[in-house]
Specification:
Blueprint (H helix, E strand, L loop, with lengths): L1 H4 L1 H13 L1 H18 L7 E2 L19 H18 L4 H10 L3 E15 L4 E13 L8 E9 L6 H15 L7 E8 L1 H12 L8 E2 L8 E9 L7 E5 L10 H14 L3 E3 L11 H20 L15 E8 L9 H16 L12 E5 L2 E4 H25 L15 H24 L1 H7 L4 H14 L9 H25 L1 H17 L6 H10 L2 H15 L6 H22 L3 H20 L3
Length: about 600
């Protein structure tokens, strides 16, 4: 405190920070990147452990015996689904009722803002079917959910069969202290969104759905099951939800503990855990796994039906069966026993899962990186913005001259680019969907192509370059740097992965752009580090991480698809990534573009 309270010492510190500003910024940037890359090194991570006492032991005896019967039920479901050309509602209702459940249905309708070409749908109509197993030993104030989506073709029939098999088995047990809801939802996330809105009496997306006639208690946890094969080689755990939300880490720990107990191969991001962490290949594998989680979380989209539960503070995950070329095989009975063990443990909960972490990264299922370990990497990048702001503030410390009416002559040159940039952002957010009909009428494109190409056209349209004094661009840059610091800080608190990726690309731009740097080279760098190019590079990088590299043409088509899906995710589920980029990040980048070409 003495250093800051003494004017002479404070002045000396400020003088040191401004004199060595550029070297300190470069060191902070490299240190932030190095810190982040070191997070996947196993000695720097924590081993997972169960924090919730009610789930601390896996000493339950799993007895589910009916794997083959579940597969037969799955085949019967597939036949009725093919016959009905969709969800076999009547058959599901009769089958659930035969298993002693209280069965209800919910119909829903959703008109998309533009056609979803990936899934070939525009006006979506469907029905959800769910059965409730009432708790025989409790006041029925709490519930657990097991769901399986009714997917097109031959996908996920085995999951529905196993769900019905578990419903019949659970019905004969007397130890349940919570209602258990068995849900088969149609049209994947849209059906799940309709059911959750109906269950919680909310309508945040404008979807039309019929009210639920039956309801259980307050949902404590949920699992979504995806199985498309009679035998599987491993179970993959999917955690990433809407807007980068993650379930409580204890849910992942519970899954891992039962996989270890029963002897099921388990993966995260589709990758098995390796024990050779001290080798280059072992470390590379951990980095790859962690980066896949970062990329998925940064996308803001739900990567399974569980992702929509998280917005209602319900801890949820998706368990996906993988059938690869590995020799190790697991049958449906074993998977049923694993799910039985997990639900018996969740049945013991006295309160919601809250004792473990909600903010974490996972380089493997047995190790995790907590928020206290990964936030310094972002902090080292964010401090660069504060150092640059301090340097600009020192340069502007002399009060500007006042005009006769008492106003500062620098206000207008600063306000003009701020207003123009944000109006451009508003146009980028609103016009692509509003102008799709006009674009289709005048150009030979589909509605989806019209939306995407309109967004790209608005993004690339040249904005007016403002004029002003030397002091004017410094004031504008000070505002832009502080704006970016607040924006990235708030983003990282909600979605660390998105905030960190944006910081990696935008902080160098914010730190070193001025009107006095070489224009052509700086403009090229500015474009390369823009939000749109960052997304393009992320598409190729994500494919490389998945070991599914694509050509430039394939990558470009994926890029256009990602843009359309981002707009759809915002309209359908409330994803915040598209409005964040359009209304805040892109206008902020435009401010730095104005500074570069300041006249």
């Amino acid at each position: 405190m003495g250093l800051l309270s003494d004017p002479n010492r404070r002045q000396a510190l400020i003088s040191l920070l401004t004199r060595l500003n550029a070297p300190i910024c470069m060191v902070c940037y490299m240190a932030g990147v190095a810190w982040f890359m070191g997070l996947a090194f196993e000695p720097f991570t924590l081993r997972t452990y169960m924090s919730e006492n009610a789930m601390g032991s896996t000493m339950v005896e799993e007895r589910f015996p009916a794997g083959e019967r579940a597969l037969a039920t799955g085949r019967e479901f597939a036949a009725h689904k093919k016959k009905a050309d969709g969800m076999p509602v009547d058959w599901l209702v009769k089958t659930m009722q035969a298993r002693g459940l209280e069965v209800f249905t919910q119909s829903f309708t959703r008109k998309l803002p533009f056609p979803d070409e990936n899934k070939e749908r525009y006006l979506v109509k469907g029905t959800n079917v769910y059965g409730i197993l009432r708790a025989p030993r409790a006041p029925r104030t709490e519930a657990l959910v097991l769901s399986a989506p009714c997917s097109p073709g031959d996908n996920n029939n085995q999951a529905v069969g196993l769900l019905l098999g578990l419903a019949q088995y659970f019905r004969n047990q007397i130890f349940w202290a919570k209602d258990i809801i068995f849900l088969v939802n149609e049209h994947d996330l849209i059906g799940m969104q309709a059911w959750l809105e109906g269950y919680h009496h909310t309508n945040t997306t404008g979807m039309d759905w019929s009210p639920l006639q039956g309801r259980g208690g307050s949902i404590q946890a949920a699992l979504s099951l995806e199985l498309s094969s009679d035998v599987i080689t491993s179970l993959d755990l999917v955690l990433e939800g809407l807007n980068g939300q993650l379930p409580n880490l204890d849910l992942a720990n519970l899954f891992y503990a039962f996989c270890q107990k029963i002897g099921v191969l388990c993966t995260i991001q589709g990758k098995l855990q390796r024990n050779d962490w001290d080798s280059v290949s072992g470390y590379s594998h951990a980095v790859q796994t962690m980066m896949l989680m970062v990329m998925k979380q940064a996308s803001g989209r739900p990567w399974g039906d569980h992702g929509l539960f998280l917005r209602y503070h319900i801890e949820a995950a998706t368990i996906k069966g993988i059938n690869s070329f590995r020799q190790f095989k697991t049958d449906t009975t074993t998977i049923g026993r694993l799910l039985e063990g997990m639900y018996r443990k969740l049945n013991n909960l006295l309160e919601r899962l809250h004792q473990s972490y909600f903010f974490y990264l996972m380089p493997s299922l047995s190790h995790f990186v907590s928020i206290g370990y990964y936030m310094p990497a972002f902090g080292l990048l964010a401090v660069i913005l504060l150092l640059r702001a301090l340097d600009l503030w020192v340069q502007l410390v002399t009060p500007p001259q006042r005009t006769e009416d008492g106003s500062s002559p620098e206000v207008l040159p600063v306000l003009t680019p701020l207003v123009i940039s944000h109006l451009t952002g508003v146009a980028l957010y609103i016009l692509p969907i509003r102008f799709q009909d006009m674009a289709v009428e005048h150009f030979p494109v589909s509605e989806t192509e019209a939306v995407v190409l309109t967004a790209i056209a608005i993004y690339t349209v040249p904005t007016p370059i403002c004029e002003g004094t030397e002091q004017g661009w410094k004031v504008l840059k000070l505002v832009a740097v502080l704006y970016l610091a607040v924006l990235l800080g708030c983003t990282a608190l909600i979605n660390f992965s998105l905030g960190f990726i944006l910081a990696l690309t935008l902080v160098p731009v914010a730190a070193f752009v001025t009107p006095h740097v070489p224009k052509v080279l700086s403009a090229f760098i500015l474009v390369i580090l823009s939000p749109a190019c960052t997304l393009l590079f992320s598409v190729f990088f994500f494919q490389e991480l998945q070991e599914m590299p694509v050509s430039f043409q394939e990558g470009w088509l994926l890029y256009l698809s990602v843009i359309s899906q981002g707009i759809l995710d915002h309209s359908l589920y409330g994803s915040l990534v598209y409005p964040l980029i359009a209304l805040l990040v892109y206008p902020c980048w435009l401010l730095f573009w104005n500074i570069l070409f300041w006249k």
